[in-house]
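To the wet lab folks,

You asked to see what we're planning to order before we commit. Fair enough. Below is the target structure as tokens, and below that is the sequence we designed to fit it. If anything looks off to you, flag it before the synthesis order goes out.
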């Protein structure tokens, strides 16, 4: 079987990450984690028939990345890889019949996803390897209320804004400071971001980084932003290729 290409590693990392976020939002959605892990397992072992037969190749992937201890324990977790895997496999088999265990295995499912993501990305070193490539941004003509809704629905702390040919960040703390003193702030909710920014400084200018920037370089900044905005050469200056938060780098 051919080794995973760089683009494949990023594809399966994104698949696992999306499933992990889904399980964090709804513990009973851990089935999505099973599907994502099985998809990766079948790529590594095309003969695999079901989640259980994917175990060997998935463990090899994690072990080859240097993430397993002498007893097969996952570094920093103190739990064996096979324990994570068996718990997820058994719960999946059982839930198909009884609907039990979903919430009990959600944490293990998320942990297993994280381990596999680390294994896939252990040799990756640039911003493009870790960024979220489907960023959500806000336009300056959209309302404060809409921006607030986006943040609440997605648990965002920042929203990128392209305004006056520059990149800016709208933060949750800036919105809180603007809205809370006038609560329920109906009038302010209806203002556009551009209008509100004329009354009080809501937007913080941020210099974007290129997708090819080494991760080590951005971590040297003594005061890194809460969210890095990523651009690519050859694209229009207002095109956002992705976003990267410290969360993706942990």
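Sequence we intend to order:
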């Amino acid at each position: 079987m051919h080794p995973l290409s760089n683009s494949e590693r990023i594809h399966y990392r994104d698949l696992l990450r999306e499933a992990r976020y889904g399980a964090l939002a709804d513990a009973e959605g851990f089935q999505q984690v099973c599907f994502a892990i099985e998809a990766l397992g079948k790529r590594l072992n095309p003969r695999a028939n079901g989640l259980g037969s994917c175990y060997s190749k998935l463990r090899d992937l994690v072990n080859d990345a240097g993430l397993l201890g002498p007893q097969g324990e996952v570094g920093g977790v103190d739990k064996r890889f096979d324990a994570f895997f068996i718990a997820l496999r058994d719960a999946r088999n059982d839930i198909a019949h009884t609907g039990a265990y979903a919430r009990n295995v959600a944490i293990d499912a998320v942990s297993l996803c994280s381990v596999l993501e680390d294994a896939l990305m252990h040799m990756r070193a640039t911003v493009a390897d870790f960024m979220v490539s489907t960023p959500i941004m806000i336009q300056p003509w959209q309302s404060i209320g809409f921006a607030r809704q986006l943040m609440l629905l997605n648990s965002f702390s920042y929203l990128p804004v392209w305004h006056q040919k520059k990149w800016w960040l709208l933060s949750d703390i800036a919105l809180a400071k603007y809205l809370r003193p006038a609560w329920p702030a109906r009038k302010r909710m209806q203002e556009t971001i551009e209008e509100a920014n004329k009354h009080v400084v809501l937007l913080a200018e941020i210099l974007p980084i290129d997708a090819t920037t080494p991760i080590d370089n951005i971590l040297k900044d003594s005061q890194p932003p809460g969210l890095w905005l990523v651009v690519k050469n050859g694209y229009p200056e207002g095109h956002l290729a992705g976003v990267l938060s410290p969360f993706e780098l942990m």
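Structural context that might help your review: The chain has a mean pLDDT of 87. The first strand starts at residue 158 and ends at 163.

Thanks,
Computational group
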